[in-house]
Amino acid sequence: MNKKNIFIFSIALFIISVDQLTxxxxxINFQLNQPVPIISNILHLTYITNTGSAFGLFKxxxxxxxxxxxxxxxxxxxYLKRIKNNEKTxxxxxxxxxxxxxxxxxxxxxxxxVVDFIDFRIWPVxxxxxxxxxxxxxxxxxxxxxx
Length: 147
What we know:
This protein is of the alpha+beta class. Helices cover 60% and strands 13% of the residues. It is globular.
């Protein structure tokens, strides 16, 4: 395995690990729908489950999102060889995308729904994997825009 792939997979593994550890912590320490204020009226930890996509859209389509996640993972693996060694931002973005996609896929496969818990009160509740995917998509759009 080359340095490029080690970097991408290290980012992905880090995201998967942090995502799954935080979700595990939430599941064993919180009751479903229980909000715990971290910064009152700004940031809460609220344990919810989500059968839809990011931000709670398209609820009840778990099978679709499982298949979609698998397709994203296959596409990432297919395009790995096309990423150049000097494209560090692209490598980082792909690592985030892979890690976030796998993190939420694990939830869908093992629990039937994604565990969300970061609650800013003015935004739908989300998790680490959602954040990684969102950041990766923003980076990828910027990188494609520059080309």
